[in-house]
Amino acid sequence: MLELKNISYDAEDGKEILQDISLKIDDRFVAITGPNGGGKSTLAKIIAGINRPSAGRIFLDGEDITDLSVTERANRGISYAFQQPVRFKGLRVKDLLALASGRDSGLNDSCEILSEVGLCARDYMDRELNDSLSGGEMKRIEIAMILARGTSLSVFDEPEAGIDLWSFQNLIRVFEKMYQQTRGSILIISHQERILNIADKIVYVKDGHIERYGRREDILPELLANTATATTCQVLNEKVEVK
Amino acid sequence: MAIDAIQMSLLKEVAELDALPVGAYNIRANGESAARNTTANIDIVTKTDKPGIDIIIKPGTKKESVHIPVVLSEAGLKEMVYNDFFIGEDCDIVIIAGCGIHSCGGGDSEHSGIHSFHVGKNAKVRYIEKHYGEGDETADRGKRVMNPTTEVFLEEGASLEMEATQISGIDDTIRKTTAVLAAHSSLVIHEKVMTTGTQSAVSDFTADLNGEGCSCNIISRTVAKDQSRQEFISVLNGNAACAGHSECDSIIMDDAKVLASPQLSASCTEASLIHEAAIGKIAGEQLIKLMTLGLTEQEAEEQIVNGFLK
Hints:
- Chain A starts with a strand and ends with a helix.
- In chain A, the strands form two sheets. Chain A has a six-stranded mixed sheet, sandwiched between helices.
- By secondary structure, chain A is an alpha/beta fold.
- The two termini of chain B are 35 Å apart.
- The mean pLDDT of chain B is 92.
C-alpha cells in the first residue's frame, strides 16, 4: 500500500505545484485524472523518487520511503513508466528488458512480454531504442519494461499519449489484462474515459489539490457530466463537440 | 619465433583469437613475423624495401579471411609497418587487423601501421581493426602509442566496410584515413573510441568521392572521460553525383575535451553531402530511466556508455 501524507511540492521558481496532498492507494487499479498542468505528473515523479517533496512523507507498505533514492524505491517495488519514453543510442530492446527483469532474457521470455504489448520479439528484441522507433513503439516498449519488472506498484504517466488509434485499442486490452493479473497496485495517469472506466478508484487532481477521490462509479459520471457543461469559451466548446 | 602467454592474451583482445586462425594470417610479435599462413587464393609476401607485407588476394576469392594482428610486449619498442592489400575483382573477404600493446616498465611503445587497400572492381571487403593497450599502470610507465594510417582505393562498384575500435589502454593515437572512391563504389566506416585519464585520440578522415553514384558514410561514436582529449576531423569532397554522410557523436564526461570539425566540399551540383556532429553529456533522463529499473547511478552510466560504444 502506498500512502502520501501532506505532500507539497514547490517548483524551482517557487511556484506551488502540489499542496498538502494526502492519499492512500490500496486498490488494484487507481486512475489519476484532471486538467493539464494540475500536478498529476509531478505527483507520479514524487512517488518514483525523481522529484523530492518540499513537505510531507511517503510510505510504501508502512515503510517511510521519503528519503530513499530512485534506485532504492525501484528495488522496493516501484515501477514508473515515463510519459515520454527515453531513447538510448546503442541499447537494444532486449538490453532494457534484461535490466528491467534482472536477468538476460531469451527469445521466449522477450516474446512473452513483448507480445503483451502487440510487438513481435523476433522483430523488436535487437532493435536499438533510438530514433528509428516511432513514438507509439517506444510507448509500448516502455509498458513492456514495467510488465517485465512485475513489481508491487506500477505507475504509468499517460500511457496513451502519442499513441495511434490501433495501439490505443491494444493498450486498453493490456491494462484490462494487467488488471486481471496484477497482485499489486496499478496507478495510471490518464485523460481517457476508457482507461478511467476500468479503474477501481479515481483521483481528480486540479491546481495542485485532490478535488475528488473515490470509487469510479461515484466519480466518473460526475466528471463526464462536468466535461459536458464545461464553461470554457464558446469557440472551444463548439470545436470539442464537433470532434 | 614462438608466441608467449602475454602475446596470446593480446591476440585474444585484438583479434578474438584463442588459437591460430583458419585461413590466411600473418602474426607480427615484437617487430618480427611470428606465424604466417597462406592459402591457394591469398598470398602474403614480406616486403624487401621496408618492414611490412603485401597481401595479394586473387580475383573472385569469396568467403575467406585474412588475420594480420600485431602484438608488442617489450617496453620501448617502436616500429613502422607497411601492409598493402591488393584485392582482386569480385572478391568477398574479411580482413581482421588489430594491434595490442602490453607495456611493462619504462620506455614508450609505439606501433605505426600504414595500411593500404586497393579494392578491385565489384569486390567486397569487411575490415575489422581493434586497438588495445594494457600493462602496469605505474606513474613512470612508458606511453602506449598507436598511429594507424589507412589508405583506401575503391575501384568501380567496390565496397569496403571498416570497423575501428579503440576502447582502452592507448595513451596517444593519431588515426588517419583517406579514401578515393570510383563510380558506384561504397565506403562505410564505423569508429568507436573511448579515452580515459590523460589519453589523447585524433581521428582524421578524408574521402574523395570522385565517381558517379559512389557513397561514403562515416559514423564515429566516442566517449571522453577524465582529462582525456579527442579530436574528430572529417572531410568529404564530393566531385561527382555522389552521397556523403559523416556523423560524430560524442559523450563527454568529467574534465574531458572534445573537438569535432566536420568539413564538406562539393564541386558538382549533384553531390549530396551531410554532416552531423553532436557532443554532450549523458542525458539526465537516461540515467533516471535506468535508475527506475533498479540500477544505481554508476551502473546506469556504465550501461549507457557500453551500449553507446557497442
